[in-house]
Amino acid sequence: MVQGYRRLFGAAVSITVAATLAASTLATGAGATARPASSTPGEYLVFYAKGGQAAAVAAVKASGGTAGAVDTKLGYVMAHGPGAAFAERLGDSPAVVGVTDNRRIGTATALTGRAASTAVPSQEISTAAGARGGDPLSARQWDMKMIGATPSGSYAKDRGSHKVLVGIIDTGVDGKHPDIAPNFNRALSRNFVTDHPKDPNGKVLDGPCEVKGCKDPVDEDDDGHGTHVASTIGSPLNGIGVAGVAPNVSLVNIRAGTDSGFFFLKPVMDALTYAGDAGIDVVNMSFFVDPWTFNCAHNSADSRADQLQQAGIVTGVQRALDYARSRGVTLISALGNGSTDLGNPTEDKESPGYPLGKERDRTIDNSCVNVPAESNGVISVSAVGPSKRKAWYSDYGIEQTDVAAPGGDPSDTGSSLKGAAREILAAAPEKALRAQKLIDAKGKPTSSSVVRDCHRGTCSYYQYLSGTSMASPHAAGVAAILIDRFGKPGKGGVQLSPARVEQLLYATADQTACPSSGSTTYSAVEQTHACEGGKTKNGFYGHGIVDAFRAATAKG
Hints:
This protein is α/β, with parallel strands linked by helices. The protein has two domains: 15-30 and 108-119 and 136-439 and 465-553, CATH 3.40.50.200; 42-104, Peptidase S8 propeptide/proteinase inhibitor I9 (Alpha-Beta Plaits, 2-Layer Sandwich). Helix content is 22%, strand content 21%. It has helices at 15-26, 53-62, 83-90, 142-146, 225-234, 265-278, 304-326, 430-435, 468-486, 498-508, 548-553; strands at residues 42-48, 66-71, 76-81, 96-101, 104-108, 124-126, 165-169, 190-191, 250-255, 262-264, 282-285, 287-288, 330-334, 347-351, 360-363, 378-384, 403-406, 424-428, 450-455, 458-465, 488-490, 493-495, 519-522, 527-530, 533-534, 537-538. The strands form eight sheets. Strands 8-9-7-11-13-16-17 form a seven-stranded parallel beta sheet, with helices on both faces. Strands 2-3-1-4 form a four-stranded antiparallel beta sheet. Helix 5 links the parallel strand 8 (190-191) and strand 9 (250-255). It is globular, with a radius of gyration of 22 Å.
């Protein structure tokens, strides 16, 4: 299932749902109207220009607000003031470069729903050992075979090591899952979010809080998205379930998303800052920071307050990314699931995505950016199906696509696989599956998207999902192998400069040319996507499909 068309860049939608979504994306709206300025008091992140801290604080006070804590690392002031009118007055100061309200403004990226075909044989395995040196479900991992992450491939050469710290900035990680626990680094894991039962309009958002204070433990994932991502990166070769791209690395939960898959700007920045300070080697970011799918600092369809908010998002995230990268963190992001040429976007029908139900049509252009996928210093990953065809949902673009990786595609008929088997299988939290009614009271899967693997009386669960959320962790796993091979002792264990990781990742990728016709037509959604560029760099595959075996054997 392509998870979270809006919420997450990975899981599966039925082809019927996909077609409906695609049609709505292509439809032309009647035009948008700017939101009126609000006078409701709120908390704001006021980003100031270099050397403008004092002037920004003065502007807050002059605009009728109260200045609070200052973050000198990322250059912003926490302020309280009377709503959008306050933000617009702040925008008049030359020292202020963005003003973003401190509320939920982000989403994880995956596609949700079920694949049209669910022809997957047995969904329950009972075994004591893996087949031919792999794990019991390795035969279902076409994605690992595609990139050479197999017992006779990269596993025989380099599996990563616990010295390599891979951060998962997502909805959390189920650190107690049998196929996550051996590699889960609980000591370094952090949760930067507080769940919200309802949104400002009283609509159910995260649901009832499970713990006092609504802040989940660092080993919990009530959504399942982050656990799936972590599993693809580094599930161990331990005789149960599946194995990840780099099955010996340390997995660090750096949670920035709530149970419902939305993200605040500040937790995203806090997570990136922490990654830099903690010595994390590579982070996976399978989300986009919203409420704006595309952030436009000068869109005439938006109010001045909305423009300032979007400028703040672009500025704040970029500063946090720069901070992390300057401290040795390689930044890898899912490209997005909007079936959009990011070099030529024309319409945004999904923004603002919070509070729920506030979306409106906007005409946009290439000055508008998806964050963090289009932020500087980020390696952005498109998705392919089992035949290596670019997935129908995957965003693309000659400037934006850096590499490609298996993400799954239920509509990809170019292989012998059927239905859900064309997606990516990885670990899933039992609690989340129960809440979604994907397993029954006895623990038996109720959907062919879920597989139960039982070993010596202990059962663990896995789920088929697809999306660029599922592609990105493959690239993160390959990056971890490169860091293990070529890194030097440093903070956290081992370090390799992000620029060098990027160079090696591109050099070891399997260069893949555009389709001979120059485009791909997706009959399931009635779209044709044009591919620009040559074999060494193009809009579908970037520098190529990531390759774990080449990464594990390449000369430095």
